[in-house]
What does this fold into?
Amino acid sequence: DNIRSKGGGVLLQALLDQLRDVKLRMFINDDFRFANKISINWIIHKVPNNFIFKFLKNIQSIFYNSDIKLYFGNIPPFFKTKNSYLFIQNALLLEVKNIKYYNNLFLKIQFIINFLLLRIFGRNCDKIILQNNHSVSIARKIWNNDVIQFPFIPSMKKVPTLKKKYEFIFVGGFDKHKNLSNVIQSWELCKKLGVLSSIAITVTESEFKKYFSSLNTNDLNIVFLGHLSHTETMTAISESKCLIFSSTIESLALPLIEAKFCNVDIIASEQDFVYEVCNPNTTFVETNINSICRAIFRYKKIEKRTKLLNIKNIKKFKQHILK
It folds into this structure.
């Protein structure tokens, strides 16, 4: 396993809940926190979050006899393994160009290592599992018919109809491809144009102030929800009028599915993966602050037209340069 938090962590917790009655030998990060009681049917090997330990445990796992081996965390086995599946949760690893979404040198090196491991050893599994159409189309160019598409989500319980506390909610963190920075800058622009909406975001205030050190958050009507469990996330979405989802690339986009399940409005990036799981109320270009701002205005039914250029004819241009 190479997954322990965020959307991948939610899926892993949900999968483990389904495997409670199955005899299971598990190699998992030592900082992974089990949401529920550990089953007596499981043998757990905790692996330090260190490349050398993960490398050794990857090799060790091959030698245990089992009916099925599931590599649930982007990294395949280093040798050909029978009856094996690889689940690729991080769609960024499919293309080397996605290194641009990693901010510092350490993360870039880590990305390159994981990208190469996936490319070199991906064929060691019988089947590779991905979720959305875009990811599958890229993977099939690399691994041909070894790729299968199987989108899945955790079991969801209906959340009671709750009083709306927030106008908008952003579910995600500071990962570059999530484009939180652009959403916050669009909030600043909306405020300058006289429109200020409340927005709840799933990060802590201290993390936010560290990342956006120059911003006065009191002026932007931001509510900091901190890090939420899946159940808490569903509740927060239900307490919101609209989910704003600004990712450029996703494996599945679980928050969109959660918002749809909770009958909450959605404004989202104009990306194919969005339309694979929902029909948003309106969309925007996630890299363009003005586009996000216009989408907010459209959703709120506010008429804010951009001032048109004062376009002059060619004679005026001639007069200007010859004067």
